[in-house]
Amino acid sequence: MGANAxxxxxxAAAMDRIYRRQRYIYDVTRRYYLLGRNEMLASLAPPDGGxxxxxxxxxxxxxxxxxALYPRTTLxxxxxxxxxxxxxxxxxxxxxxxARIHVALGDAVTADLNALFGQSSFDRIFISYSLSMIPAWxxxxxxxxxxLTSGSSLHLVDFGxxxxxxxxxxxALLGWLHKFSVTPRRELEATVRAIAKRHDLFIEFRDGPxxxxxxxxxxxx
Length: 221
Hints:
Elements: H1 3-22, H2 26-30, H3 37-44, E1 51-55, H4 61-69, E2 74-79, H5 82-94, E3 101-105, H6 113-117, E4 124-128, H7 137-146, E5 153-159, H8 167-178, H9 188-198, E6 202-207, E7 213-219
Parallel strand pairs: 1-2, 1-4, 2-3, 4-5
Antiparallel strand pairs: 5-7, 6-7
């Protein structure tokens, strides 16, 4: 087994340990502090008949909401945690748009999209609150950016620098997130801007209130 395979296996096992029980209450509890997700979904605006891919789809909460927002699209998602995918499949089956949502088990670092879904390009790709949990997060953004074709875009949302939050609140939040192996990426903006420049992409970057969350859109013109 190579180094990449070993790292992937270790990360998958870690995510399964974290979410084996949490997956049952994940969506109910995370809505209070995974902010900016709805704004990110609203920014997708895919073309009619287009395709949307989520990297790190978790419970499929975002995919299900996107399917309702964009009724003439097909949606795809993959996640490294088989535990989260079990919840995702149950939730998708109970949704009104199950036929348009497809999920699979995969590692964002090494996933072969053709093998998973029979296609390698998508009109919209998004990553929601997964970068703060993926060790090789810079590589994930770079790889996704490299998959953009003319007119397509990559949308990101995750924890921000939080520098404008009261110090006590910031310390408490960071301590809480650490319990779940979540590390806000303070270098997110610099990294995304560098990747956009490398791939010759247009970029929009914004911070949410108090810097709690940050979002970015990278577009292929």
